[in-house]
Amino acid sequence: MNILRFCINGQEREIDFSKPESPSPFCSVLHYIRHYEKLTGTKEMCGKGDCGACTVILASQTDSKGECNYRALDSCLLPLAELHGNHLLTIEAPADCMDTLPIREAFLKERASQCGFCSPGMVLSIYSHIKNGYPFTPAFIKRTLSGNLCRCTGYTTILQAALSLEKAGVIIKQNEKPLLFPVIENNSLHLRKNDESYIRPVSLTELKELLKDYPHLPLTGGLTGSGMTYRKSVIDVSHVKEMLACEETEDSITLGASCTIKDMSTLLGKHFPYMVPYLEDFASEQIRGKATIGGSLADGSPVGDIMPLCMAHNAVCIIMGPDSIREVFCDRFMLNYRKVDLKPGELILAARFERPAKNVFYAAFKQSRRKNMDISSVCLAAAIELINGKCHSVRLVYGGMAAVTAHARQTEKFLKGKVFSLSNCKKAANSIAADFEPLSDLRGSKQFRMDTAKNMLISLYQKYSEQNE
User: Fold this and answer.
1) C-alpha angle 346/236/300, rounded to 5°?
2) Where are the alpha helices (DSSP H) in 78-147?
3) CA-CA distance, 316 to 333, in Å (whole number)?
4) pLDDT tens-digit map of 46-56
C-alpha cells in the first residue's frame, strides 16, 4: 500500500501518495504542517536544524500498555514519511493530548517570551524535558535547550521559567489522556510518488533483499548530515531491529549502526562516563535524538566527533556485504578525505567497543565555534594506559587536523614510557607539528588549530589531575 498513516494533535491522518494532490514522501514535516495542515505556530527559520524554531514532538508507542517515547525534533529535518505509525504534536495540540499551559504560564510570569518567534520551539523542548523525566538543574535545562536559539537574548528568563516547572509534570499528567496511534502492520514501508521512493525495512532479512533489488539506492539513517541532500529515493535503515540492538559481553559492547548519538551516550556512558559530556556537545538535543552512529562513521568527515572516540577505544566496524560480514578496525576504516572502506553493496551493521580496561585514563575534548550546534574545529579523544605513573600505551586521536581523523603518532611515541606529567605533556605538544599540517578554513586558521591541538594535551593532564586529587 502506498499510504502513510499517522496522528497529529489527536486526529488520525492518511496520505495516499498515488493521488496527484498529495505531498512528496520527502516533504519536510515543517512544510507539511504549515502549508497542508495550516498550523503556523511552528516557525520556519534556518531550514537546516540550526535554530530550533521549528521544534515539534514526535511520540512513538513503545509497548501495548500505551507507554510512549517523546522526542523533540527539528521538523525541517524530518521527512513526512517518518511520521508513519507515530503521533505528531505541534504547539497547537489540545491540552488533553499535550498540556503546555503550565509551561506557557511560566514563560508569561518570567517574561521569557520577547518577540515570540522562538517561543513555540522552546516550550516544546521543555515539554519533552518534563515528559522524559530529566532533572531540573541549570545544566540539564541548558542541555535540553541547546538546540533552541533566542535572537532576543532572553536566555536568563527562559532558564528561570524552565527551572520553576519541576512540579509541573504532575499537573500535565493529570490533564492528558493516552495518545491515539494509528493501527499499522509492523512490516516494511514502501512509499512512492512520481520518481521518488522511500523504503523502510524493519529486519535485516528485508534489508538484504532490498539491497539486491535496489543496489544503487543510497542508505540513510538519521538524515541529519549529508543525508539531508537525499530527496529522491532512499532506503531508510533506522528501523531495522538488528541495527538498533545493543549487545554486551564480558569483553565488549556492540551498538547497532542505527542507534542514535543519544543512545550511544546512554549505553556507553554508563561504562565510560567521560563520553557523556563530550557527546552532549556533539549537537543539539534535537539532532542527538536522530543522528545515528552508522551515519556519522559512513559519512567519513575528518572532523566527525564519533570517529575519534572509536579510534581511541580501538573499536571495530562490523560491515555487512551481499554475501558475508567482515570486521575492520576504525583505525583503518577512513581511507582518505570523505572516503571510507565500504565496498559497493556494503553497509555498517554495528560498532564494537572494548570494555573499560584497567589503569586506562580516558578523556575527550571538542573545540567548535558554537558549543552544541557545530561540528568540531578540533577534537581529541585519548586513552592512556598508566602503570606506576608511566605511559605504558598511548592513543591520541585528533579530528580536524588532517584529511582524515588520525593518530598523533609522533606525540604518542614521545609520551610512551615517560611519566605522565604536566611537564612531559607540554614537551609532547611540540611533537604535534610533526604529526599534522592542518588547513585554514571557516572554522579556524592553521595556527588556531595547531595551538588548540597543543592546548588539548595540557587539558588532558589537567583532567587527569582533577580526577586523581
Assistant:
1) 50
2) 101-110, 119-131, 138-144
3) 9
4) 888 889 999 99
**CA angle (113, 30, 133) in 5-degree steps:** 60
Contacting residues for 243 by C-beta, under 8 A, at least 6 apart: 204, 237, 256, 257, 258, 259, 294, 349, 350
Spatial distance between the Cα atoms of 325 and 420, rounded to a whole number of angstroms: 40
Query: Residue 218: what pLDDT?
Result: 87
| Run of H or E including 155 | helix 155-163
Angle, helices 101-110 vs 168-175, to 10°: value is 140
Angle formed by the axes of helices 119-131 and 101-110, nearest 10°: 120
* Structural contact between residues 103 and 126, judged by C-beta atoms closer than 8 angstroms: yes
The domains found in the chain, sorted by start residue, are 3-89 (3.10.20.30), 101-175 (1.10.150.120), 201-356 (3.30.465.10), 359-469 (3.30.390.50)
List alpha helices for 164-315, DSSP H.
168-175, 204-213, 261-269, 275-280, 285-288, 293-299, 306-312
- The single-letter DSSP state of residue 113 is -
Kindly state the DSSP code that residue 249 receives in the 8-state scheme: -
Could you tell me how many residues make up the chain?
469
3-state secondary structure of 366: strand
Using an 8 Å Cβ cutoff, are 98 and 68 in contact?
Answer: no
Listed ranges 63-72, 373-382, 416-425; the one with the highest mean pLDDT? 416-425
Whole-model pTM? 0.90
Instruction: Give the distance, in angstroms, between the CA of residue 307 and the centroid of all CA atoms in the same chain.
Output: 13
Spell out the SS3 assignment of 284-311.
Answer: CHHHHCCCEHHHHHHHCCCCCCHHHHHH
End-to-end CA distance of the chain: 63
Report which of 54, 88, 117 is spatially closest to residue 287, judged by C-alpha positions.
Answer: 54
Please name the helix (run of DSSP H) or strand (run of DSSP E) that holds residue 31, with its range, or none.
helix 29-31
Give the span between the Cα atoms of 341 and 229, in whole angstroms.
22
DSSP assignments along 344-402, one per residue: TT-EEEEEEEEPPPTTEEEEEEEE-SSSSSS--SEEEEEEEEEETTEEEEEEEEEESSS
Instruction: Report d(CA 41, CA 30) in Å as an integer.
Output: 10
Distances (CA, A) of 48 to 147, 227, 258, 283, 298: 12, 12, 21, 13, 20
Q: Is the confidence at residue 174, as pLDDT, over 60? A: yes
Contact 197, 235 (CB under 8 A): no
The predicted-structure confidence for 147-170, as pLDDT tens digits, reads as follows 999 988 889 999 999 999 998 888
Q: What's the pLDDT at 231? A: 64
> Is 51:149 a contact under the CB 8 Å cutoff?
yes
> How much is the pLDDT for 406?
96
Q: At what angle do helices 155-163 and 119-131 cross, to 10 degrees?
A: 30
